Prior knowledge:
Layout: H1 13-19, E1 26-27, H2 33-44, E2 55-60, H3 63-68, E3 84-91, H4 101-118, E4 122-123, E5 126-127, H5 132-142, E6 148-159
Antiparallel strand pairs: 1-6, 2-3, 3-6, 4-6, 5-6
Helix pairs in contact: 2-4
Amino acid sequence: MIHWQEGWRRMEAIEALLTRRSVRKLTAESLRTDEIETLLRAAMQAPSAMNEQPWEFMLVTERKLLDQVPGVHPYAGMAREAGAAIVVCSDKRRWSTDEFWAQGCAAAAQNILLAAHALGLGAVWVGVFPHKERVRGLRRVLGIPDHMMPFAFIPIGRPAETPALKSRYTPERVHTNRW
């Protein structure tokens, strides 16, 4: 695991939140084992309803598999250039309710994106659930069993682009006390 004391690129939390961008142009350079472990540790630190931690993660590093994903997901073309991808899934057998698993998986996906950014990596969230054809396609290509619900596909790699920063802050969308 990478520890901040060991010199990895430390980024303040607010800076990471305000400067993270979806990076769709990646290099195929492999990710280091310690980088992957850091991404997965960050994902598993996400909050979840009733602390159920509904997630499981599939790491995809085989070039053949990364190249096949765009054939079953129309917005996953960048997988062909990614060094790896993480599929955020949820084990339906562990759900005490089917109401909040997706929020926990979304928080885990966001943590992966923020951790990748803090490590100087590029990543993008490619939605899978609730599109049935994307769920079926990923299950088929990656051998994901039926009791696992693929939620998000996150290609990760060294960035081959630096998307421009844009503020998304819109004060008109903030309502205080009453609508």
